[in-house]
Fold each of these.
Amino acid sequence: VYQDKENGWEISYPNNFIVKKHNHRIVFTSPENVITLTSPEIGLWGGKYYDNFAWISIEKLTAEQTLEEWIAKAYRLGEFKEFEITPEESGWTIDSIQKITVGKNVPAIKVHEWVQAYDLTYRYIKHGNIIIAIKNSVFSESEGTPIFNQMLSSFKFLK
């Protein structure tokens, strides 16, 4: 279990996963899923791409905003709206925004996008004056999404 006592939440992760903190970002990944990239154009995490991983980042709000208002501003939507289109229609862009729940009925907003061969899914949760962004990324139809969904099902706020 990873606990962020300062911001009041926790999430469970598999025993074999490595947890690394980088500033306001926490990365969860399995050692079997580290792919070393040699292409100079790709400089993710010092030349390594972590396939099947989760990032959690924290952003402090500077103004009083609802989660919907924050999403609309972050994604330059003008106003918040839920939608879903097929990847073929969207190209390399956002193809869905949906209100969901994670963990024990925690309200969240799910944003899914395609960028080249990466399948990126974000879950955003507002807690007090922070946004908790939980990102899952897989490279081409990977098998790790069930592990990520299991992690999300354990998300909860600390009492």
Amino acid sequence: MSTSKLEPAPQATALPLEAASEDLAALAWLHESERDVSTLGRLHAGGFPDGLTLARPGMPAVTDMEQALAVIRQVGAEEQAALQDDLDADFAGIYLTHALRASPCESVWLDEENLMMQGPSFAVRDCYRRHGLAAANWRHIADDHLANELAFVAHLLAGGHADEARRFIDEHLMQWLPRFAGRVTERASTRFYAALAGLTLQVVESLQQRLPASG
């Protein structure tokens, strides 16, 4: 009579915090300002988004971004100016004029009157201060702007502060990012910015699931 042999359960792979930090920093950079067509083409040639630690190849959000960047990279020289105009207009509609009604700032989503620079913004500023940080130009890009919040999580991960990164994600980013991403995905006029919104949500969700629960 044979007996089954018990083996140790496989260990979960530890999250490489430095690599995860790089993922968040790259996304912060893309949300911070307009990027030109040639830069986005080079980003794709360099392996983005397939090289992201927190987004596996084959995920819908990864595939959407892969396809959006592939199209940008293949655009001929005579079409690049028109594509650049489309990208710049879409960026403005999301991040500057709020034409899409999809603010990249936490306060607008959480404040009762949907105003900027309200309680959530100051709460985020306090989080930065506790780590000796401050928004470089809060009048131009508010403390609770998506780019700043992503960059802050990247900073926490780079410093090994996994528990604080999870707490900030729970208390701030994931309180509004799903709604922002959903609205941009629905209303963006370019595939790139729709894909960027979806990919950002996917990466942050993946990170949230892999970090220890905040106490």
Amino acid sequence: MTTSRLAILLAILLGGMSAIHFLPKQQSFEQPRGVTLELPKLVGGIWYGRDLEVSDRERGGLGAGTEFARKSYTNARGDEIQASIVLSGRDMNTSIHRPEWCLPAQGWTIAESQSAKLFLPDRGALPTTRLANMRLIRDPATGEPVPGRDGQPLTIRNLDYYWFVGYTGATGSHFRRNCMDIADRLIHGYNQRWAFVMVMANVTEDFRTNGLNSEQTDAMLQEFIKKLVPAIHQESVRLN
């Protein structure tokens, strides 16, 4: 009885070890990616972009080989949207992280975080995460909060959409991205370069006479993203 159990165990062990030969070969040198690392100069015919610098602090905090693209877009009304792409180096774990980790360090409080699907004509649904953020305006000299007309501290409100893009798919979830990456390595045999895309804008109704409220800012961001995605997603990326 013991001998037959050992034989079965040995057969399972040998079978598992030999199965490794049937897995796809890993692409060690050329890592496929699903984005073009070049933000367009013009989006939707009305948004004009100018390059923004990426600080040495940001570059130093991420892994070797990480690449960046960042632009500030404005329209004729004076509205502004900031768009960023971070493309991972060979080590995805040191190149890509969620903004929930870094926004608090920049003084932002994340008031709301939720999943949001944006429906793009002829492409499908883009899964994203939508953040609503708040930050006190502080006096640069003293660091104290700046009071408004009512005596209460002035607060900036901000809306932020982000998502991750792999070689063939996109997701707004950090956990889902890891699952997709593992599956692609095991099933398809490639170690892809993931990209993190973020599009954000401040709510301006409290600071401009023609400023936008939260709902208007949200609608503006969604329309911008629908025009941006076809310009930066490669054809290999499939949306549901």
Amino acid sequence: MRIDRRLPVLFMAAISFMPIAQANKGDEFLHVQAYATAAPAAQGKVSRLLVNPFGEVDGLLLDTGTLVTFPPHMGEQLAATVKPGDTVEVKGYPEAPGQIKGYVITPSNSNQPLMVQAKPPKGIIKMPKNVRSAGLEAMNAQGEIRHLHFGKHGEINGVILADGTIVRFSREASYKFAPMLKIGQDISASGYGTKNQYGQAFEATALGPMGQTPQPVYRR
């Protein structure tokens, strides 16, 4: 049997082009420092900060249409560092078309980078999800899909409507309602979420085309 002696070289070459976070998904936060000296993955002016259904800032939208995701436990730091209208440089890697997982965000006005921290500071205990959910309010929205939000498996797990409302949903829902989850599609949704100074976002419990009664996302 002939052995191709180039294989180790070819393998190492492939690894060198593999995003660090893909090569070590379980330890991605350990590699933040590696991105500090990397080339920017995106640049642009901040159109708005993004929030999740609990009202936590978990990213931003650039004027280029690029979404940048950031850990929600660092939402307060992100909101204090970056404001709408600021020009920023983002280092990270593409999670999906038009979406960057941010590891280092640097506003041009201060040139002080904000880097991802692996977890909340010691002494801070995250509130259980069922307790956090108790404070959510019923919401509904309808309109044209302007932006798509992707999950870690590449599935569409949210949309941003023309009025700025952020609608999130489960991976299972993204498959069930896939035909209408497209930019330019008009949809109607209802669910539970939060409204604050950054906008409103909710987790959908029902989805459907605009003008029709939304269909339940979950079975009782």
